[in-house]
Amino acid sequence: MDVKLTKGKKVFKFSIPEHWDELTLGRYQRINKVLKDEAKVSDIEKVLRIVSAISDIPKRDLYVLDLNSIGKLGQHLTKFLETEPEDELQHIVEIDNVEYGFHPKLEDMTLGEFVDLETYMKDIDENLHLIMSVLYRPITNRLKDKYRIEEYKPDRERANLFKKKLTVKEVHAASVFFYNLERELLIHSNKCLKDLIMKEKQSLEKQ
Question: N or C: which end of the chain has fewer CB within 10 A?
Answer without folding.
Answer: C
